[in-house]
UniProtKB/TrEMBL annotation, chain A:
Coiled coil: none annotated. WD repeats lie at residues 443-457. GO terms for molecular function: GTPase activator activity; myosin II binding. Residues 278-378 form the Lethal giant larvae homologue domain. This is LLGL scribble cell polarity complex component 1. It is found in: Cytoplasm; Endomembrane system. One of its GO terms (biological process) is Golgi to plasma membrane transport. Its main location: cytoplasm.
Automatic annotation (TrEMBL), chain B:
Keywords: Cell cycle, Cell division, Cell junction, Cell membrane, Cytoplasm, Membrane, Tight junction. It is found in: Cell junction, Tight junction; Cell membrane; Cytoplasm. The keyword Methyltransferase does not apply. Residues 185-278 form the PDZ domain. This is Par-6 family cell polarity regulator beta. Its main location: other. It comes from the Eukaryota. SUPFAM superfamilies: CAD & PB1 domains (SSF54277), PDZ domain-like (SSF50156). Signal peptide: none annotated. Residues 38-124 form the PB1 domain.
């Protein structure tokens, strides 16, 4: 993957161009529903329930498309090597996708669609497509249907070859009498092409009849029928597969068994299978839904199948079994198996072996790839499709320009974590990544519900896992993670092997990570969690066994009349704890009461960490390991703050119930009251059909008062070297902002580096500001004499940032949920402001100072304030003038978790969750863009530029002119398929931009 | 002209000589040395003892007479009674004794004075409010006798009604002249927490006249008034009134939640433009030809309104929402506005700016004359209540 820089054609004096472009989706597609693989292009396609189609090849090779219909993609089939992809939706429509080249890059686009015409007089389900087989010739696809008929479709025109249709009757006529069971054959379950002789099709029907159909003669040539009237219903056919030589076929059945049949010569009938096994019998088993047979040079063939587990004992397990001779591995997944395929060379010489390299299994929540050529069949780590949600994401944090040294240490720590992974190369490696190498290393950190912090390489298009940090081992939790359970299971039958990492169950919700901060120069990290735990960590390249020093900070500060009713604090484990190489905790600070940490900040030069909860904030010196300051921010009337998260759930339920009751009550009384005259009056007044709803949604208009609940929540903390007390001396300061619009500023006495151990840090309250609009303070930043944000600690001393201007007067930018304000320092006077809520009716959800580089010249950098609102819009303001520049709609306003998950990077990119498992990446700067640029070499039998394609192009053009369909700007909008800034940006720039 | 003063009353003759661009104000006051009251005796009471005939002259810009407060301060200063609350009145062209207690009537007084303006000053606690009003001067033969000899007229005790400045505004109808008759712009002054704003809004639909005929469009309506709330007590808002604007911003196209947030964000000085459900109480204007607004009742508001409203808002809105700072655990103070000069150094690139509500804060509007004009005396106002002026080093010239 890579950061793409647009060629600079603009003069250098032009300001940075602000755009909003959705560039790439990171992570694992939500609700996948179909899988396909093209062995020639070596790319894989995944379809989703939302109608998205995503292609993946070598890392960085990604193409995305979205069906116009929001319907589930039930099947995907490549026309191998040709760059065509057939998709079937659950509305029974077929769609043809094309990989086409534009400006040297490949794009994916739907070119035409097809619906099987209903048969007159029959129920529409008769023509529901159950099976698709694109034939190896590449010009015809067979469609098996629920009614049992097989249709043939010319490709890529998607024209039905009506005369070729093969109805059940034709099959039945040529079937001997004892094969007929007096019933229809049932839906077509499987159609498989003969691996050597493309003219012969194996057609399997649900009730069990399998016919080998010779297309050239137009008659069934072989009938390996095993359905006799005596065969119980449970033996219904589930799937069919050829052995590579074409001499044998294997069938799987609903009773959990599979059978191998020899295919005789023409006209022969096969009565008995060579083998019939129920691998997990003898007790009743679930159906084997799909089976593959792969020959292998080194020994026995691989038989790979999904399902078939003993119904009573393991019926709820999601398994794929790999059987080679006597070796059986029951791969167990934590979510439902959707589909699987094996990767091998597309061309196998006559009499050769397939030698599958890898098994790729798509389950609902992740993609797992098994190395079939290394003994023990280890998993191959995936370079993309990371299951971000293996435990629910609770927070995210982005660090740009990570120094190489730190990067290497994190990568090395990650490599040492997973020795059991295969070293085999990633098998799905088609296409060429054309994106430039990323110019800088970006690290995305995600905090999870289970107390882990995951480190992702976010430099390029594919989000790659680097390292995983667990914090649970520091605490005594009820359920100890038990690896011995797995080992004990070695002896059991079936031989389960847990694969994949999706594990949504958290042992203890208190372990959840709430806030992360990392100093990239000193490798110090602070992680804070749900039970008020604040962990100061250091990166250590070696493993270590040490005790973590524990401190508690009372944030209530002997305020009376408060009793915490929430969860207990986490009990730390006593004594030395073993830590693997990587980030190792040195200090644990626990807040009292143990409410979730709502804000943290770290200053690695001063050795200070500040943290806040709903009760107050504290300052801790992690060098001397003692608390410096604790301040309670609670308002005396705030009762909710003491309840903790658990009882709040209860009260929410209660209030929901109450409001339902209220609605019901008012509905009843409303009806009673409404007499005819009133109804008529209402009618006349509304001059339209009367509103059905009797009690419309009402909103109370009342200003925020000082005693609103949860007013004490600390929303942001900030360290700055600035002028707090007088204009002559600057020094360390700490700032805290609360939910009720209060800002506290402390002057800190920090001893010099040499005297850290001797002298303690002191904090003196310098200023207290109360914003009269009382909105929550979401961010505080100090701007230097030139109006630039202050650099991070060590940034200047390592020559990575310009020294701040300490001559001119500093100013302070306070962002509340409703307004942005700039005040002078040290004497606080109001300078500029922007009242966002009063003007736009939206509230600030996320805010960040970003520097946008000019497209023409990288040196031309503009500092802006980027803000994401509760309506999902992104607004950009100049700093410090706070002049609105542009705004875009970015996230649907209903997508509350998406808005809550948004993080901005320093250079104007951003991430937000479009599903629990996927980050959408966007860019606000035309300069700094990360998007997939790739090329797939396709060889078509039908030349491109066919009339149908022209039509498609025209359609695409008209789509561009009329703007994309609503809702496209969020979620699956075909991120990679359009050039940047592309169609989707076009709308926002022309529609809602206000250039002031 | 000779006027009389009571022991607590001072009357002026303001001689407004057109001396463009300045108005020459000749302040004269004479103490009645007659038998009525012993002024000398009381003058010492009026801190400063400056009662005596005096003649003063100073300049005021005709077009910019300044604010009432400044004028008041000036009077207090001139008479060296800085801590004495007084009522200021003047006689208008009809001879009525009318109060001067705000910018508007002060400006009115100055503008109608041709060329003389008679001014009466009374100490507040001794003031006779009944003296004010229509026909006060003409009806009673001598207003001064009324003013100066209240004892003679004490037939019935008058109900003492405070002057408007002693009241806190609760609500007002504004911009009547620029709004269509079917619309009403109501300003609610939220003060403290004693009384809730007390209303609810809901979604609904309203009918608009468009080029395509009648069209139903979504709208925001007042759904409920809380009994005893500010909204209800004004009597200017009612259930089912359609909300058209909030503080100058049209609500069409905005969701209920957005409008809610806008109203709450502006709740300390909320101006909502409504189309009352009951159209019978509308203000009927005489001059319908004054503007096209009468016709465009159903269409959008006149384009000039946001501007006017914004200007209108600016002055008042700035004062009501100053954040508070506590320095070194001292007393809470309002955060002043920064002088614009320091700001410009930061934003040299952004030269084009209008002082709108957002963005740059306008500097405190102290457009008092500097010493350039011909003045005979120069005072620095020493008023403890006006610290900001003092800090800015602004000088009021006399």
């Amino acid at each position: 993957g890579g950061s793409c820089e647009r060629p600079g054609t603009l003069p250098a004096h032009l300001p940075p161009i602000k755009v909003l472009g959705f560039t790439v989706e990171h992570g694992f597609p939500s609700q996948p529903s179909a899988l396909a693989y093209d062995p020639r292009l070596r790319v894989m396609a995944i379809g989703t329930k939302a109608g998205a189609v995503k292609l993946y090849g070598a890392p960085g090779v990604e193409l995305t498309g979205l069906h116009k219909e929001t319907a589930t993609v039930t099947q995907l089939h490549f026309l191998a090597g040709q760059g065509w992809l057939l998709s079937l939706l659950d509305d029974n429509s077929l769609h043809l996708w094309e990989i086409y080249q534009k400006e040297g890059c490949s794009h994916l686009e739907e070119t035409r669609s097809f619906g099987l015409p209903a048969r007159p007089g029959c129920s529409p389900s008769i023509t529901r497509v159950t099976v698709i087989l694109p034939m190896s010739s590449g010009t015809v696809a067979c469609l098996g249907t629920e009614g049992g008929a097989v249709y043939f479709l010319a490709l890529p025109a998607l024209v039905l070859l009506e005369d070729k249709t093969l109805f059940q009757d034709e099959i039945l006529q040529s079937v001997p009498d004892d094969y007929r069971c007096g019933k229809a054959l049932g839906p077509v379950e499987s159609i498989q092409e003969h691996p050597q002789d493309a003219g012969r099709l194996l057609i399997g029907y649900s009730r069990g009849l399998v016919a080998l159909w010779d297309q050239s003669t137009g008659s069934p040539c072989s009938l390996p029928g095993f359905q006799t009237p005596a065969v119980p219903f449970s033996q219904q056919l589930e799937s069919l597969a050829w052995e590579h030589s074409g001499k044998n076929i294997v069938s799987s059945h609903s009773d959990g068994g599979y059978m191998v049949w020899a295919v005789g010569g023409s006209g022969q009938r096969t009565q008995q299978p060579i083998t019939a096994v129920i691998p997990y019998g003898p007790f009743p088993c679930k159906a084997v839904s799909k089976i593959l047979w792969r020959t292998c040079e080194s020994g026995n063939p691989f038989v790979i199948f999904s399902g078939g587990m003993p119904r009573a004992s393991y019926g709820d397990r999601h398994c794929v079994s790999v059987l080679q001779g006597r070796i059986l591995a029951t791969l167990e997944f934590t979510s439902r198996v959707i589909d699987f395929f094996t990767v091998q060379d597309p061309e196998v010489p006559e009499g050769g072996f397939e030698n599958p390299r890898a098994l790729v299994v798509l389950v609902e929540e992740e993609l797992v790839v098994i190395d079939l050529q290394t003994p023990g069949w280890p998993t191959i780590p995936a370079p993309y499709l990371a299951p971000l949600h293996s435990s629910a994401i609770t927070c995210s944090y982005h660090i740009s320009n990570v120094p190489l040294k730190l990067w290497e240490r994190i990568v090395s720590a990650g490599e040492q974590q997973s020795p059991r992974l295969s070293s085999a190369a990633w098998p799905i490696n088609g296409g060429k990544n054309l994106a430039q190498e990323p110019t800088q290393r970006g690290l995305l950190l995600t905090g999870h519900e289970d107390g882990t912090v995951r480190f992702w390489d976010a430099s390029g298009v594919s989000l790659k896992p680097l390292y995983k940090l667990g914090t649970a081992n520091i605490f005594q939790t009820d359920c100890e993670h038990n690896d011995s359970l797995n080992q004990a299971g070695e002896e059991e039958w079936p031989p389960f092997r847990k694969v994949g990492c999706f594990d949504p169950y958290s042992d203890d919700p208190r372990l959840g990570i709430q806030k992360i901060t990392l100093c990239k120069y000193t490798s110090k990290m602070v992680v804070a969690g749900t039970a008020g735990q604040v962990l100061v960590m250091e990166l250590n390249d070696d493993k270590s066994e040490h005790a973590v020093s524990v401190a508690t900070v009372d944030l209530l500060q002997d305020r009376e009349g408060f009793t915490w009713k929430g969860h207990d604090r986490l009990a730390p484990r006593n004594g030395p704890i073993a830590f693997a190489p990587g980030f190792q905790p040195s200090v644990l600070v626990q807040c009292v009461p143990p409410a979730a940490v709502t804000a943290i900040t770290l200053h690695s030069e001063w050795n200070l960490v500040a943290f806040g909860t709903s009760h107050g904030f504290g300052l801790f010196d992690y060098h001397r390991r003692n608390p410096v300051l604790a301040r309670c921010t609670l308002h005396p009337n705030d009762s909710l703050a003491m309840e903790g998260p658990l009882s709040r759930v209860k009260s929410l339920k209660k209030s929901l119930r109450q409001s339902f009751r209220r609605i019901r009550k008012s509905r009843v009384s409303g009806k009673k009251r409404l007499n005819v005259q009133e109804a008529n009056a209402q009618l006349a007044e509304q001059a339209g059909p009367p509103e059905v709803e009797m009690t419309p949604v009402q909103r109370r208009i009342e200003p925020r008062s000082a005693d609103d609940s949860l007013s004490g929540v600390v929303r942001c903390l900030y360290f700055a070297d600035t002028f707090l007390r007088d204009a002559a001396h600057h020094g360390p300061t700490m700032w805290a902002g609360t939910n009720s619009g209060s800002v506290f500023a402390y002057a800190l006495e920090v001893p010099s580096q040499e005297k850290f151990s001797e002298r303690a840090v002191e904090a003196v309250l310098g200023k207290e500001i109360q914003l009269m609009h009382r909105a929550p303070v979401v961010a505080i930043a100090v701007l230097d004499g030139r109006g630039n944000p202050l650099p991070e600690p060590y940034e200047v001393s390592r020559d990575l940032a310009k020294a701040p201007d300490m001559q001119g007067s500093h100013s302070m930018l306070i962002s509340s949920e409703e307004q942005f304000k700039v005040f002078t320092l040290p004497k606080v006077s109001a300078k500029t402001k922007f009242k966002l809520t009063a003007h736009e009716g939206c509230r600030v959800r996320k805010v960040a100072l970003v520097s946008l580089a000019s497209t023409a010249a990288e040196e031309r950098v503009e500092n802006c304030l980027a803000c994401l609102t509760n309506l999902g819009d992104i607004h950009i303001f100049t700093v410090p003038a706070l002049r609105p520049q542009v705004h875009y709609s970015c996230i649907r306003k209903e997508d509350i978790s998406g808005i809550a998950s948004c993080v901005f990077t320093k250079h104007g990119q951003g991430f937000y969750l479009i599903s629990p498992s996927e980050f959408e990446r966007f860019s606000l700067s035309a300069r700094n863009v990360t998007e997939p640029l790739c090329c797939l070499e396709v060889s078509r039998l039908v030349p491109r530029g066919a009339p149908g394609h022209l039509l498609a192009r025209l359609r695409r053009l008209s789509q561009q002119q009329h703007g994309e369909p609503a809702g496209h700007h969020r979620g699956h909008h075909g991120g990679g398929s359009e050039g940047f800034p592309g169609v989707r940006c076009g709308r926002s720039t022309s529609g809602c931009c206000r250039q002031l | 002209m000779i006027l009389l003063t009571k022991r607590v009353g001072i009357s002026y003759l303001l001689n407004l000589v057109c001396f463009k661009p300045w108005i020459q104000l000749d302040f004269k006051w004479l103490c009645n040395q007659g038998s009525l009251i012993d002024v000398r005796d009381k003058s010492s009471e009026c801190s400063g003892g400056a009662f005596g005939a005096e003649f003063r002259r100073f300049s005021l810009e005709r077009s910019k007479p300044g604010k009432f407060e400044e004028f008041y301060g000036l009077l207090q200063h001139v008479h060296k009674i800085p801590n004495v609350d007084v009522l200021v009145g003047y006689t208008d062209v009809h001879g009525d004794l009318l109060p001067i207690n705000n910018d508007d009537n002060y400006h009115k007084a100055v503008s109608t004075a041709n060329p003389l303006l008679r001014i009466f000053i009374q100490r507040k606690e001794d003031a006779d409010y009944s003296a004010f009003g229509t026909d006060t001067v003409t009806r009673k033969k001598n207003v001064l006798t009324n003013v100066l000899r209240p004892d003679n007229h004490k037939k019935k005790p008058h109900i003492v009604i405070s002057m408007p400045q002693d009241f806190r505004p609760v609500s007002s109808i504004i911009d009547v002249d620029i709004l269509p008759e079917t619309h009403r712009r109501v300003r609610l002054y939220k003060y403290g927490t004693d009384k809730p704003l007390g209303f609810y809004i809901r979604d609904g639909s309203s009918v608009r006249v468009t080029p395509h005929g009648l069209e139903k469009v979504p709208g925001i309506f007042i759904s409920r008034l809380v009994p005893g709330g500010l909204a209800q007590s004004t009597g200017l808002l009612a259930v089912n009134d359609e909300v058209l604007e909030v503080n100058g911003i049209e609500v069409s196209g905005k969701s209920l939640d957005q409008v809610t947030d806008m109203m709450i964000a502006n709740s300390r000085n909320l101006i909502i433009t409504v189309r009352p459900a009951n159209q019978r109480n509308n203000v009927v204007r005489n001059s319908r030809n004054s503007g096209s607004s009468g016709q465009s009742t159903e269409s959008s508001l006149p384009s000039s309104t946001p501007n006017i409203l914004a200007n209108f808002l600016q002055g008042e809105e700035e004062s009501d929402e100053e954040d508070i700072i506590i320095e070194d655990s001292g007393e809470p103070q309002q955060i002043p506005k920064a002088a614009p000069t320091s700001l410009e150094s930061l934003t040299q690139i952004d030269l084009l700016h209008e002082p709108t509500q957002n963005g740059f804060l306008p500097s405190s509007e102290v457009n008092l004359n500097h010493s350039a004009c011909n003045v005979s005396m120069e005072y620095e106002v020493q008023n403890p209540d006006r610290k900001s002026l003092e800090e800015d080093g602004t000088i009021i010239t006399l």
